[in-house]
Amino acid sequence: MEFYEVEPTLDNYWRAIILxxxxxxxxxxxxxxxxxxxxxxxxxxxxxxxxxEPFSRHLCExxxxxxxxxxxxxxxxxxxxxxxxxxxxxxxxxxxxxVKLGFNNVIDAFHVVNNNEIAQRFFIDExxxxxxxxxxxxxxxxxxxEQFDSFNNETEARWRLVEQGWKLGVSxxxxxxxxxxxxETLFTSDKKRRVDITSCRDSFNGYQKGRCFYCYSPISILSxxxxxxxxxxxxxxxxxxxxxxxxxxxNLVLACKECNRGxxxxxxxxxxxxxxxxxxxxxxxxINSHLPxxxxxxxxxxxxxxxxxxxxxxxxxxxxxLLIHQWEPExxxxxxx
Length: 337
Ligand SMILES: [Zn+2]
Hints:
The protein is mostly helical. Helix content is 46%, strand content 11%.
């Protein structure tokens, strides 16, 4: 079996927007929920006035149980929503205010995932030319998807998780978020915390020989050194609820700071197929060299090489269809493995 590339489907793109979009405000959820409703509207040009009704309605509803809908201190649009909830603004005034203030950031930001525009668009911004947004064929195709009805629930669930995170005031990375494929829902639990993994530098460096796993630039495993290696999750830790045992040895490598979190670093992108092959080779090396990691790796990924390849290909497909963006750095040192 050879490794192969997988292409994200439209529903992968859509879920990436809902699951992995940057959340500084809940507007993206309100817009998604509005688009689900407008799907039954035959015209593909949706005027801002038309969009404003469901958009503000969803936000007003959520404000009633969760006053925090934005990470910044205040928003004139959310103040208007609160005024509407308290009865000091009528429905028409609310829609006026929404058209003026409600869409400033969300239309532009909607298709941004992990700081990059995704390759597929579900609407085109025609506010300047036609006073609205034009729904694309992608969205209509998405609407025919067998799971389309569940998207509304998923979006609502995700919205509530983000609200819960803001309420608790904890970092998003500490909130346990899971996608239940059977129920097609996301759920949370605060039992689990990120496992401390910094102690495995010594074991990994034997293979990497003081080189970054991705770019081969020199790294150190001595604390206090400027170029101290980062222990990095090959498939991003952000998928800890979607992939099996993301904190497992099979998924950990040593990386230079530049690759892990520098400008142009990996962050929550998925390494390319070339790098996946390199990871497989690394894991086989550990298994065949009978290092102490052997048993751990076999337990985590499979008892023979075809099974382990199959495991890696599966988690890679899952990671790429969830996170969309790929990453590979320039080579900056001697290729030593
Ligand atoms: Zn590097």
